[in-house]
Amino acid sequence: MSRKTAPELTPEQMATQAKQGLATGVGKSVKHESAEKQVTGDALYIDDRPEFPNQLHVYALMSPHAHANITQLDVSPCYDVAGVRAVISAKDIPGELDIGPVLPGDPLLADGKVVYVGQPVIAVAADTLDNARKGAQAAIIEYELLTAALSVEEALAQKSFVTDSHQQKRGDSEKAIEAANHVLEGSLHIGGQEHFYLETQVSSVVPTEDGGVIVYSSTQHPTEVQKLVASVLGISMHKVLIDMRRMGGGFGGKETQAAAPACIAAIIAHQTGQPVKFRLPRREDMMMTGKRHPFYNQFKVGFNDNGVIQGIDMVVAGNAGHSPDLSRSIVDRAMFHSDNAYFLGNATVTGHCVKTNTASNTAFRGFGGPQGMMIIEHVMDTIAYHLDKDPLDVRKANYYASANQAGSGRDETHYFQKVADNFIHEMTADLETECDYQARRKAIADFNASSPILKKGIALTPVKFGISFTATFLNQAGALITIYSDGSICLNHGGTEMGQGLNTKVAQIVAEAFSVDISRIQITATNTEKVPNTSPTAASSGTDLNGKAAQNAAFLIKDRMVAFAAKHFEVAPDKVIFSNGIVSVGDQHSMTFSDFTELCWIKQISLAATGFYKTPKIFYDHANARGRPFYYFAYGVSCSEVIIDTLTGEYKVLRVDILHDVGASLNPAIDIGQVEGGFIQGMGWLTTEELVWNDKGQLMTSGPASYKIPAVADTPEIFNTRLVENRTNPEDTVFHSKAVGEPPFMLAISVWSAIKNAIASVAEKGEVPYLSAPATPEQVYQAIKRVRKGKSPLSQAK
What we know:
By secondary structure, the chain is α+β, with helices and mostly antiparallel strands. It has 19 helices and 30 strands. The protein is globular and about 80 Å long. The chain starts with 10 loop residues before the first helix and ends with a strand.
């Protein structure tokens, strides 16, 4: 086979291409790699895949009881339904029954007992989903009812927990509170949240000739699905391949809970030898899977006349549901973030994972951080209204020391991590000026004085969010890059694309490394055969970890190419320059990247490499409750203005201004999209998204008719979003960027605080508004009634 030699470019051609600049490298607003496919409907999700011949569909029959013994289980009538091919219960699982991700407690199918309404008891496979549903409903199952634990407060009082509790302690909070001028104590209920991904949980499984399976799964954690499928089948992981091209949303709900559909489908595929698909209908998805943890938080705080906290005692109690799932790590993160942006010199923070007979709650954007931040923001508002001060002044008085105030002693968290490079002061001052906070606050006071029914409120709140998995071993990632002889690049990494733009950013990083256009790069599905032992795409770490791994793989290949060119053309390595699709070797040779790649191939240079990255510096000593669990912090500030109707409790968000820190942005357009999307999702959690269970433990808000996520009409009339400029991440992240997935979610706390500010305008003198979350119109109305009657649930100890 003949090959042409690489043609050299003239200096004029090289200069022209160099001037054009790399349009799709880092720092550019490159469009999402699947944008056109998603807009046109051409993007393929698992349910869009063509069906295989003889494919079966699965329906799981759910428990109607929150807690009961199964006294009879007869599945023989299921087979009388046309099209039914297989029925499995707990006794039919060939390997391990328990699929708990960290600790046991999650049987794949109920084994003699049910522990929540919605727990799958049997799974039926048929030629159609409708026949599978009919078959499942034909089963004869009888139950003996048991007492169910449904109340968090009752379970907390009974010390019913799924894991051991944890405590972090700095200084002497009890002594400091006792010595303070003012002491208040109270509590706060914080609701859960349904993930409401557009694509429900789904897996499609094909058996292979060697006794293994190929699993197409909508999952944020392919390796965990691989591990658990192998476990329930009783085979080794190398016989299980997980393929994940894209998800129709995840938000944490597909980190652990995507495993069950994959495992059930795999067992039936293994048993029947036929392809199997298991897609949960929306109602079943909402009833069967866990949510964001509802929390019941308590505090006792001592502070001075300026509102500066002297000592504080906080208890954060997350409703874990019936099993551990990831609750220990989620409550840990709530504890880590119970300070938010505030220095707590004398603090005791206790965390409990409370056990109830509900679906096992799980990861959700922020991973416990939002629930932890809510209690300290509630404290800040409480102090301010008690002292009749602007809540922003109280917040600023309690901030951690800024980066230029080293040695003040106010720069260390209650778990003994230094808060380095803190510029929340600067960001607050910037946004306060930019959004004209002080003038608007005065205008709102004037408006409220002359408006007897409609009242306005405003709040400016900060975010300090730690980036890294709190389970330290998960802070690792791998990537595989292959360059073909025509100069095209195939990129695979261990992260998963769920709409957040991860694949686009990682491709930009690789494009920047080789100084080529992103169109040259093909991103393939996340595949456990290409990149093994992946961590979940969660904790806002997707780009930090996988981007670094891909960059390292690219540099390995590039170093080989540079070494070859230096030797082949007899120049120093630093004379080999990659720039805008051109490779220049000294002053004498230049060629396109494609031609240079072909030359490397001809000269037998390896053009494939795996990259690996692990986050440095981080650790946490759980026994002593101290360490550095986060590589760095991301910061943000937001100001929200609302108007409420005091007769009904209805409200509207009028204006939002956001300033957010992403370090050196890899893709400003995607980052702004993440900030705005995260804010709106957070606003939904704190306002309209109310989960309701009846007294039997059944979820009553099990569909869009009863569960309200934000719609376009709920977005603020004025919505201003800016990224902090010229402020790179001091840590060695990929191109000194910062994570952007989760931190913006907590910017929405400003909406909740603004609603409280509006409620405070009708309060009796000295009354502090109490508002649980979500702040539905009913809750707002009840809060208005309380402050008018002087019935605040707050206790004043001094």
